Amino acid sequence: MHRTSLLALLLCAGPALSLASDRAAPEWELSLAAGHGVLENPLAGRADGETNFLPSFSYYGDRFFISNLAVGYSLLEERNFYVDLVARPNEDGLYYHLDDSEMTMGSLSFALGSAGGFGPQLEPIERDISLMAGPSVTLVGKYADLSLASFHDVTAVHYGSETHLSLDKVYPLFGGKLGLSLGAIKKDADLIGYYYHVTEAEGGMMARSFARQSPPEDVVDTYGRLHFSYPLTRNVEFRLGARYQLFDEEGRNPMVLGKSETMSWFAGFQYRFGSDR
């Protein structure tokens, strides 16, 4: 469940904020894609997520809208400018739940530079998923849409915040549609400390020593996303989505962040139905 949720969050669409103003979209649409997808997990000791199915759901009312895991309310809509309030899960927390079975980070050594031996044994590390909410502003352009959003933890999980800046656009290509996105996400030290550091109870005295030397800091992660769909019939289309993400290593515990670069993708055939079909 969590792996398909995160794949939907990362691959299925551009910013949920920009979709609310698309009056060409149906009032509601439900789809299920069958194929194969891999979500590369950046956390050390955690397995990548894989799935053969990718569900998607969207609903657009007069003001209220849902796009997969994002829920929003439109405050202002103009031809080339709009403002939304949006709530969505934090993706860093979802990385801890790609597998419903009991998973741990394993044994982490905080003696950086050690060439061998055994580090302190950690208790299983688990993190909760936080709900992030806040305003989003989008400027619609001829060649790209510029979006800026500020999200804050409204579930008292870590009390952190993140700021999203992105360029997005969908273009016609070979009878289908090609969506491209480039973005950056600034995450504050509270969020990073919760998801990418360990407590003294989890890591012992070495965790305290590491926190003194390398405390959590604000980071800026960047990504590029591609989505292509080609209609085969009225309700069936071929679908391909991929996202490359570069994680800022500064401020993160390198024993928790196992990979600074990840590639996630899904390819398959999708069946769609909705109020316009």
TrEMBL record:
Keyword vocabulary terms for this entry: Cell outer membrane, Membrane, Signal
Q: Which family does it belong to?
A: Belongs to the MipA/OmpV family.
Subcellular location as annotated: Cell outer membrane
Q: Name one GO biological process term.
A: peptidoglycan biosynthetic process
Source species of the chain: Microbulbifer hydrolyticus
Q: Does the keyword Signal apply?
A: yes
> Where does the UniProt entry say this protein principally localizes?
membrane
Query: What residue range is the signal peptide?
Result: 1-20
Entry-linked InterPro entries: MipA
**What cellular-component terms does GO give this entry?**
cell outer membrane
Report if keyword Mitochondrion is assigned. Answer: no
> Which superkingdom heads the taxonomic lineage of this protein's source?
Bacteria
| UniProt protein name | Outer membrane scaffolding protein for murein synthesis (MipA/OmpV family)
